[in-house]
């Protein structure tokens, strides 16, 4: 039995890495597996929410009852989020969005030739999806994630303020990518709360409860 703490709520989740092409066969990505975001989408659906999951390239099954949109690049993820966000009350930004993309994507495979020097690339910054959503006039309740390699206690709260979100969830330790377990600290206006180490599925249920009780009008539903 799980209480339906999100019934009547609409929840938008981003998950997984993004893939930024270099040429038709190559690209840049990161080690995000999407497990935490998919677990949160599943837990939100089980808590009674209407859930849309915008996923980068991952090898995971769609949680039952969740509306999934697949994207590849940060720009596509940004566009899919911006098209959907007005219909959602909560935005949980779990995706490990690439900070940069290659400025000039080659339309043919870049050849390795003896005569030619190794290629070099220049980069442009991708949009910060979470910060963009958090700045919207009718922003949903925004939840950010942070994977910090050091001094999470200070950096987590700073990131929460910089991204202008009411709740930021910090992953303890850099070794969470791809694993089934995680340990997190919640940062909100009243301070930092550490949750005990658990599987991503167990944590997702707890995090959904933590999010639900912070929502505006939480007691009315
Ligand atoms: O700044 P940093 O990448 O550490 O912030 C992490 C948080 O911001 C995550 O919630 C992530 O989903 C979100 N983010 C985003 N768009 C970006 C970069 C990060 O939504 N371009």
From TrEMBL:
Q: Keywords in UniProt for this one? A: Decarboxylase, Flavoprotein, FMN, Ligase, Lyase, Magnesium, Metal-binding, Multifunctional enzyme
Q: What is this protein called?
A: Coenzyme A biosynthesis bifunctional protein CoaBC
For this protein, what does the record note about how its cofactor is bound?
Binds 1 FMN per subunit.
MF-aspect GO terms: FMN binding; metal ion binding; phosphopantothenate--cysteine ligase activity; phosphopantothenoylcysteine decarboxylase activity
**Pathway membership:** Cofactor biosynthesis; coenzyme A biosynthesis; CoA from (R)-pantothenate: step 3/5; Cofactor biosynthesis; coenzyme A biosynthesis; CoA from (R)-pantothenate: step 2/5
The enzyme's E.C. designation: 4.1.1.36, 6.3.2.5
* Function description: Catalyzes two sequential steps in the biosynthesis of coenzyme A. In the first step cysteine is conjugated to 4'-phosphopantothenate to form 4-phosphopantothenoylcysteine. In the second step the latter compound is decarboxylated to form 4'-phosphopantotheine. Catalyzes two steps in the biosynthesis of coenzyme A. In the first step cysteine is conjugated to 4'-phosphopantothenate to form 4-phosphopantothenoylcysteine, in the latter compound is decarboxylated to form 4'-phosphopantotheine.
GO CC, one annotated term: phosphopantothenoylcysteine decarboxylase complex
Catalytic activity as recorded in UniProt = (R)-4'-phosphopantothenate + L-cysteine + CTP = N-[(R)-4-phosphopantothenoyl]-L-cysteine + CMP + diphosphate + H(+); N-[(R)-4-phosphopantothenoyl]-L-cysteine + H(+) = (R)-4'-phosphopantetheine + CO2
Taxonomic lineage is: Bacteria, Pseudomonadati, Pseudomonadota, Betaproteobacteria, Burkholderiales
Which portion of the entire protein is included?
183 to 403 of 404
Give the cofactors, semicolon-separated. Mg(2+); FMN
What biological-process terms (Gene Ontology) are attached?
Answer: coenzyme A biosynthetic process; pantothenate catabolic process
Using the record's annotation, list all stretches that form the DNA/pantothenate metabolism flavoprotein C-terminal domain.
6-213
Where is the segment annotated Phosphopantothenate--cysteine ligase? 11-221
Looking at the keywords, is Transmembrane helix present? no
Question: What residue range is the signal peptide?
Answer: none
Per UniProt, CTP binds at 99, 109, 127-130, 145, 159, 163
